[in-house]
Amino acid sequence: MDTKCIDRIIRHGGAVKCLAYSSTGENIASGGDDQCVKTWNAKTGAPDSTLDHSSSVLSLCYSIDDTRLWAGLANYKAYAWSDVSLVNRTDFASAAEFSDDCREVVWSPGGKDAQLCNADSGSPKWMLRGHAEDIERVSFSPVHNIIATASRDGTVKLWDSQTGECLVNLEGHTGGAAYIMFSPNGKQIAT
């Protein structure tokens, strides 16, 4: 692994809160307290576009086919961009992730619950309820029909994406669970 710094990009007017790589690795999106999303060429660091918003950008995710970029904002709104054109604005929250087939998106609607929805229409499939405090992150397993939600209540819950049923409640954090990620084979989860 090459560990030298390729470039130092300082183009945000505030703290950077989130980053997302496109699935091809050709582009990077960044968002933060300056209320904008910036996209970059990952190899050269050259800026591609700036997408202005009305609130701090807390999370970003590219669709698997790289046709859309979702931005989750601090004011509990989610925006979908395609070729720098706004294609959808929804009153959802900041934690969002696409399924591997790009057909579904899971996000937290600003509190203790998460929703699994159709990625194109935004129509809900399941409401995932059961956390005692706000959800910080959501994640799809890469190989199974499982969704994970991490909460400030210190728990991580695993859900069946086909039924909306809570499969497991993982406890043991001494504080809130702020981040989750599945291993590439989907057999482990880091929190």
TrEMBL record:
InterPro entries: Quinoprotein_ADH-like_sf, WD40/YVTN_repeat-like_dom_sf, WD40_repeat_CS, WD40_rpt. The keyword Ligase does not apply. WD repeats lie at residues 9-50, 128-169. SMART domains: WD40. It comes from the Eukaryota. Pfam families: WD40. Keywords: Repeat, WD repeat. This is U3 snoRNP protein. It comes from Linnemannia exigua. The gene is PWP2_2.
